[in-house]
Design brief:
By secondary structure, the chain is an alpha/beta fold. The protein is built from 9 helices and 14 strands. It has a 9-stranded mixed beta sheet. Strand 3, helix 4 and strand 4 form a beta-alpha-beta unit. The two termini are 28 Å apart. It binds nicotinamide-adenine-dinucleotide (NAD). Nicotinamide-adenine-dinucleotide binds next to helix 1.
Length: 371
Amino acid sequence: MENRKLRVGIIGTGGIAHSHMRQYVKFDDVEIVAGADLVPGKAKAFFEEFGLTDVKCDYKDHKEMLDDESLKLDAVSICTYNRQHMPCTVYALKKGVNVLLEKPMCVELEEGLEIMKAEKESGKIVSIGFQPRFDPSMQLVKKIIQSGVLGKIYYIQTGGGRRRGIPASSIKTTFIEDATGGIGALGDIGCYSLDMLLNALGYPKPLTITGYTSNYFSTNPKTYESRGCPEVAKKFEVDDFGAAFIRMEDDLIIDFRISWAINIDTPGDTLVLGTEGGLRIPSTDCWNGRINGSLKIYHELAGEQTVTEIPIPQSNVDCVEQKVRSFLDAVRDGGEAPVPTSQIIINQAILSGIKKSAELKEEIKVEIPEI
Ligand SMILES: NC(=O)c1ccc[n+]([C@@H]2O[C@H](COP(=O)([O-])OP(=O)(O)OC[C@H]3O[C@@H](n4cnc5c(N)ncnc54)[C@H](O)[C@@H]3O)[C@@H](O)[C@H]2O)c1
């Protein structure tokens, strides 16, 4: 690729596409050449916000854009709602284009496997948009867990979420309808809490899942009255709360919960219990990688029960910039995806497994075929 600019397109020009674009326009080695959105005129207006008037964007969908061989695309950002992640990614890979795919990877495990198959066949890369990975706080959690200071880790309590924070309004319901979002709080923010720990642990595999989901708040018009959009309740078709007991390989248990709406301040801190020490990570929103308060390790020293506090590093790392830049560097150098599908498929298997177990109201076995 030498010194030429990378030719990049955007599929889906809604909310998160803005955050991708704010990065791309910073980089001298990137040229934004195309964009597509299902809503006529939306992509054009999007590019105009960035002062770009000559980007090709009069396509009716991702297919029409990816079929345009004159674009000679190196990469696309896929910023569609969840249900369109798999079809857009697979189509891009079949056209020989590298993909930066927003999280969650998809909705169903089978879709994730389709993505991996297409990735393998294409020889291109797919990196999933988990920006918290690039924050020094998350890297500190990983360093502590990987150091072995906790001994054998046998139990993790994690998750998080919001007392009220349903991402829907009178003008935007793509997160909460089954045909677009497909999965609620589980896929939106649950994926981050899982990644914080699973990435630190080297992504062990799940064996069984007992999952639970509910949506008492989001289907109640009263929840939206203060925002003046009670009609949104009728459109809500996914989960606003999820919980699960996940049996992992190597005799590890993950006790997990996540919420967009609950009647408590927080579903709690993350606890990592090991035979030599226990780690407490203060409840975090996770999506931005920040942890509000010191980490604490509970351990025994000279026969005394003691606590070591580890402050969170002060940082001005721009995680979103790192997420996009690391993807572009991998495309340019022919390197590995910075957040690879081989790891995130495990995250997805857990999310999809919780959804499935909740629907069946019974424990399920998790099998992730090798791709
Ligand atoms: N990493 C993060 O911090 C972060 C933050 C917000 C959202 N997200 C993720 O980004 C994704 C999109 O969220 P959003 O808030 O931007 O949603 P959105 O509804 O605002 O935008 C999605 C856009 O994709 C378009 N679209 C859907 N299918 C398409 C197709 N086949 N071809 C062309 N355009 C298509 C829609 O018309 C819509 O304009 C979600 O999966 C969400 O989980 C990630």
